[in-house]
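Hey, can you fold this one?
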Amino acid sequence: MLIQNAMILDMTGRAPFTGDILIQNGRISAIGTGLAVPAGEAVLDAHGLWALPGFVDAHTHQGGFDMLNDDGMDLNEMTDPVTPQVRAIDGCNPTDLNFRAVPSAGVTTLCVTPGSGNVVCGWAFAAKSYGSDIHEMVIKQPCALKIALGMNPKGVYGPKGQAPMTRMGIAAVLDEALAKASAYRAKKQKALAEGAEPPAYDAKWEAMLPALEGEVPLKIHCEQFDMLTAIEAAKKYGCRLTIEHAWSADKYVKELAESGADINYGPVGVPTGYGELTGADLHDVAVLDEAGVNVSIISDSPILSEDILLVQAGEAVRCGVAPERALRMITLNPAKALGVADRVGSLEIGKDGDVVLFSGMPARDVAAAVQYTIIEGQVVYTAPGRSAPVWNK
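Sure. Predicted structure:
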C-alpha cells in the first residue's frame, strides 16, 4: 500500500512533513515525497489527513472481560493468590465485540493482561488489535508478568478470611513467591553447571523465570504508597519493572525516576477520591515526563473504552504537555514499555506498517477524528463516507 500526500508525524522527533508512506509485505519500506506506485499496490490519497503510528495501549483486558456476563470473565483466576503459570492469551477472545471495536479508536497494538484479583496474576502479552486467531496476532508472548498490590487482592481474599487480607500480607505473599522462584532458578543453574539432575519441574516457579532473568518486566498494578513496595520488590530480586495505574505518582516522582520503572498511567475516568483512585490526575504524567520517566497513558479497556486514550492525551495537553509529547504517551512510550518498539510506536523504515490517519492533528485539534486505521498495510477501519484505497494495476 502507498499512502500519499499525508501530513506525517512519525514520532521520531522530526517535525511534521507532507509525504508518502510505502508499506510492502506488512512493513514500511519507504517514507518520502513523490514515491512511485509499485504495480499491484493499493493507493490511498491522504491529502488533508495526518498520518501517525498506530496507537499502542499498554494495559487492557480486551477479549477476556465481558462486562455484562460473568461467564465471560476469563482473565481473573481468583482461586490462588499466586498463579504465575496462567496466560492471558488462553483467556482472550479476539472476536469479542469490545475487542472488535478497538481499531476504530486508532489503536493497532495492545497489551492484554490478566486481571488483578491475585498477587501474582500470570502472563500478559502484546498483540495487534485486528484478527480472528489471537496466536497469529501476537507480537510478544509473554511481554510481562502481571502482579497486583493493594485493593484488588485484598478485596478477593480478605472476605474469604484467607491470606492476603492486608497490604502486609500481599507484600509477604509476593516476596515468598519471588524467593521460591529464585531458589528454583538457582537449583536449575547449579544442576546445569554441575551436569546434575535438575530440580523437579514446577509450573509456578518456571513461569516466573522470564521476569527473574530480565526477559520481561514485573507489571505491577499499584497506586499511592504501594508504588514504593513495588520498587523495593523489583530491586531486591533484580527485576525490571513497569508500574500500572500509578495514581498519586506525583508524590513519588524522585523514587520512580530513580527506579528506572516505566509508568503506565491511568485511566482517569472516575471521580477522584474514590478509594484507591484518590489522586487520579493527568497532571501526574506531565510531572513524570518532565522528570525523564518513560510514561504512557492506558485505557484499562474494556473497563473504559479505547477512545479514552486520545481523550486522556488531550487532557495531558491541557495540563501542560506539548501535543507531540502527549502523543508519544500513546505510541512510542508504551511500545518501549512493552518491549516491542522495534516493530511499532513510530513510523520508520523496517517497522510494521501500522498507520492511523486523522482528519487533524490529534491531541491538538479537538475535532480530529480517525479516518483510517491500517495494520501491516491492511485497512481495518474506514470512517463512514471515506473511500477505499484504489489498486494500481
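The chain has a mean pLDDT of 95. Let me know if you want another pass with a different chain boundary.
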